[in-house]
Write a structure and sequence with these properties.
With about 180 residues, the protein is α+β, with helices and mostly antiparallel strands. It has a single domain, classed as 3-Layer(aba) Sandwich (Glutaredoxin), CATH 3.40.30.10. It contains six helices and eight strands, in the order ααββββαβαβαββα. The chain has helices spanning about 1-20, 25-30, 70-90, 105-115, 130, 165-175; strands spanning about 35-40, 45, 50-55, 60-65, 95-100, 120-125, 140-145, 150-155. The protein has an eight-stranded mixed β-sheet. Strand 2 (about 45) and strand 3 (about 50-55) form a beta hairpin. The protein is globular, with a radius of gyration of 18 Å.
Length: about 180
């Protein structure tokens, strides 16, 4: 019996590291708020009018950034997010910018993002119960979603994208 308990204890110490490539310490060192919840599904629409949902991204690590054209810190983050996008777009990470503006013209939002250097997808979403919970704290707000569709952390306000802790988090998410 003691041998069984010892074996179980040893495995229980190592299993968390096996099930999640991104540990809470990595999220904390990135300066992000640690979260451990399933991503709520929201409907996003692109310029062509095609829609998709968060669940459609399962199997991909995602940086989900909510922003608005009138938000200076939101616009300032787009070039830094572009650098992350360029470095990891072929390595298992998707960067998405989602406008929260109900009356925004998506073509104008996409143009604004492009003028700031963003080549990653820009989407719009409607304000409903599920979508609104993502930016209930204001914008910018950015979520880190693992390949299993779990939210592992978030930045409330402007992220510090050039810091080593953030780069480590993104590398681990992409490699997960």
């Amino acid at each position: 019996m003691k041998k069984t308990i010892l074996i179980f204890s040893v495995f229980s110490v190592f299993l968390p590291g096996l099930s999640h490539a991104v540990d809470t310490k990595t999220v904390e060192l990135a300066g992000a708020q640690v979260l451990n919840e399933q991503a709520s599904d929201i409907v996003m629409m692109d310029l062509a009018g095609h829609t998709f949902m968060i669940k459609d991204l399962k199997g991909q690590a995602v940086i989900l950034h909510f922003w608005a054209s009138w938000c200076s810190p939101c616009r300032e983050e787009l070039p830094a997010l572009e650098k992350i996008h360029q470095e990891f777009k072929d390595g298992g990470l998707t960067v998405l910018a989602v406008s929260i503006e109900d009356s925004a013209d998506l073509a104008k939002m996409t143009g604004l993002a492009a003028s700031l250097g963003a080549t990653f997808p820009v989407y719009a979403t409607r304000r409903d119960a599920d979508a609104g919970r993502y930016w209930s704290l204001g914008v910018p707000v950015t979520y880190f979603i693992d390949k299993n569709g779990g939210i592992i952390g978030r930045f409330i306000g402007e992220g510090k994208w050039s810091e080593e802790g953030v780069k480590r988090l993104v590398r681990k998410m992409a490699a997960e």
